[in-house]
Model the fold of this input.
Amino acid sequence: MIPGPFSYRKAASLEEAIALLQQYGGEAKVLSGGQSLIPMMKFRLAEPAVIVDINRIPGLDAIEERNGILAIGGLVREVALERSPLIRQRYPIIADTAEVVADPLVRNLATIGGNLAHGDPANDHPATMLALRAEVVARGPGGERVIPIDDFFVDTFTTALAPDEILTEIRIPAPPPRSGGAYMKFERKVGDYAVAAAAAFLVLDEAGKIARAGIGLTNVYYKPIRAEAAENALVGQVPSDGLFRTAAELAAQATDPTTDLRGPAEYKRAVARTMTLRALKAALSRAQVA
Amino acid sequence: MTTTPIRGLGHPVKRKEDPRFIRGKGTYVDDIKLPGMLFLDIVRSPYAHARIKRIDPSKALAMPGVVDVITGAELEKAGLAWMPTLMSDRQMVLPTDRVVYYAQEVAAVVATDRYTAADAVLAVEVEYEPLTPVLDPFKALEPGAPLVRPDREQKTNHIWHWEAGDKEKTDRIFQEAEVVVSQDLYIPRIHVCSIETCGCVVNYDRATDKLTIWMTSQAPHAHRTVFSLVSGIPEHKIRIISPDIGGGFGGKVPVYPGYVIATYAALKLGKPIKWIEDRSENLQADSFARDYHIHAELAATRDGRIRAMRVHTVADHGAFDAAANPSKFPAGLFSVCTGSYDMEAAHVAVDGVYTNKPPGGVAYRCSFRVTEAVHTIERMVDILADELGMDPAEIRFKNFIRPEQFPYKSPTGWEYDSGNYPATLQKALDAIGYQELRREQAERRARGELMGIGISTFTEIVGAGPSHTFDILGIKMFDSAEIRVHPTGSAIVRIGVQTQGQGHETTFAQIVAEELGLPVENIIVEHGDTDTAPYGLGTYASRSTPTAGAATAVAARKIREKARLIAAHLLEVSPDDLEWRDYAFRVKGAPDRFKTMQEIAFAAYTNFPQGLEGGLEAVCYYDPPNLTFPFGAYVCVVDIDRGTGQVKIREFLAVDDCGTIINPMIVEGQIHGGLTMGMAPALFEEIVYDENGTMLTGTFMDYLLPTAMETPHWKTDKTVTPSPHHPLGAKGVGESPTIGAPPAIVNAVVDALSHLGVRHIDIPITPAKLYQILVEKGVAE
Done:
């Protein structure tokens, strides 16, 4: 488990990092927390010629609310999300998600930006960001652009980011009143990728009906997906066990998992249904007190 | 006069080895660095079965820093292409014409640093012609199956057939039995996964003609003998040092090809060689455990009295029989599978089979196939209870060997030394509130919830063993201790067994402290260096306390007998007028007149009686008269998540009886670790191959070791039934929990589903496997 030869470049600024990415093109990989990249290099599944380390670039590790959005810097570590009072109080769905990423050793280094930019359908934050209708901010040679999360995940390990772009920030709409979300993950053991996981976000109107719904699913499709039919079935309805079961079934139908050591595809679909149901119930109870 | 407490048997002495471990100051093999040391790495096969057409090392040899590439053809010239296994089979060190399992060693690269070596491994070009592999042992036995071992005279994949018990009597009872239950059980391949992988550093000193090997070995003396026999190097010119070992669990008993290649390279190149496996190599190619396909039957009366047991097992040993069982026991002690129950007859047959999978069949913390035996009987007793509509506790009480039957001769020929099974199970049931749990289960079932209670009342068999029956490659399985008391009353103990985390440096010091009345902190324990430690067979199969522990006690008693003569001399009385009491020799009737061991030790060097040799030391090579039979009663309570198939262990109580306890804290730690290692194969661990024989579980992402997060809060308790034949009454404990836990967990899960007609589930009970059963039974959520 020794990686192939590579050279290491440490970027002091975004501009320098982008210039390095331009210089080396597809030969280079961005090192953020490194918790996916380094194992892949050790197994020689990835053999980048150049590593561009962005960890020392200042200004990418803030968690703050401004102008009706929550902005999370691309270099924010999972452990910071877990411990942030702002996240725990106002965005518990993100704390749910950060807490179940791998294990504490990984979370000390792993970043939310890396979790999204890796484009791995097994990663946890993508589903949550899909449910929350987040936006991703990318910086490249031509400046900054904002990518809606629905356009961000293109394929397995492929995102809308260009090879010379760096994910700098994630923007999430601030939670309206009577809203709540939750992330439910089923894993074989701690540190494992999800057998299936679901993120659910609900906004209730004054009458208690569901005004808006977001459901994202982890590791049950070739890329992270939003369960649109399930969301549509919820909107305008009064929450009930039967309604949630219907939505969970629709979410399960949106999946196309692969059979592997985590279980047969049919099983994963069933777990996606169970996790969606449980996430919806948890989201509702949070929305009812928010 | 010493005022320091002795802290002998029964004291929870903190482990003497821990200060260096928790400070990161242990010395493991990979910490050994020698000047000019080169690094060895291994090219491994991507095929489970293939002919090797060509190996071209030229590109690797052209890389800067690459010193050598070693192939099987070269080793063959030196007579080292094959080596003997501990089971008297032979195993390829490096292949000359074919590979027979995935990740098998194909060639070795030597380089000036380990990074270059890793790159060079990829530069060695090997041309393979893939052959059809055979992975299923039943298919391997069919006519026309691919032959795994064409090198053997017998052109079959069948290795050996082994039997125990009385076939005729057993068959007769089965014919006339009122009730017969039968079940197929599969115990999958698992891996020991010690934190430290295997490796060695080999240094050949041309000036002294001496070969020194630092090696991750559970049995350094036995390995030295094997090395001497294989290489022809005289045994006194080989020194094996097994330094701090990061876990063994049976995986460091076999000799691996890497050790032999590294030794060859060191002799050839005249430079020290280091070889350390990485995690995937360890998982993919080192000895596995289990892989038993068991068909078991019980014959019983209608009122639940077990009369006989019949077992046939097909044992998948992979491509080489590289297990480490005693010579006469190719299936280990599997015939102890009649367990804790008194029955009229039993017959056990095992067939060993070659397949295109890595070699082995080592005991993984289970004393020679006892896990398989206990799993079989503890499952079968539950299946019989289910057949008869009896409570699993009731059927056990009805069939237990009664306390007055010990020493008990089992129908397969073992003599159980001591036990009190009903008392231990009763203690467990009372502590966990068994009747109340059964009531709760009935209520939950009525609500559609799935809760189960599982019992395992296992008997272990450890401490191999008596030399008349037990040997490895002819070397008798005694063990040894050598004690030397210094003039100021401190002592050094050297033992033939080798700790890998069991705490020998503490417990063996406690034995000496108890026997000699010297404070435990004044006693140092050394082991693992074949130049200094007395010969022994090493630590595995829970044998250290039963064998070397006994040797230590007996050696200490020899010292005490000499000390009595010195004390008599000092007190000017006859030796017969002295008695050993309260850690001193006291004049009978005048207990205030006494000499402590510290005073006696000083006199042994300064003022000993005429006619007596000076000094105070003794050696013992202890040949145990019998094995010891620890036992226990475990109760497990589980809840099943109907939405995911996940098993949640709500409660687990382990009541163990390992005879006299030397250090209760270490025993508790052993039990906690062992229970987690028992839970692991029950719910998580399994080595999986695809249809080509490629291993799919070669990393910890796929081979699931449970962590603290998956581990429930273990509750432990004990009963104490000393062994009548061990000098201390101790029995050994390291493996009891690993053996007892899996059936307790499986029995609980099956119990949760028994009302739905579920009678057996093979391990590991993964969520996916269990959910499928829930779907079939119509109870999935």
Observations:
- The radius of gyration of chain A is 19 Å.
- Chain A has a mean pLDDT of 97.
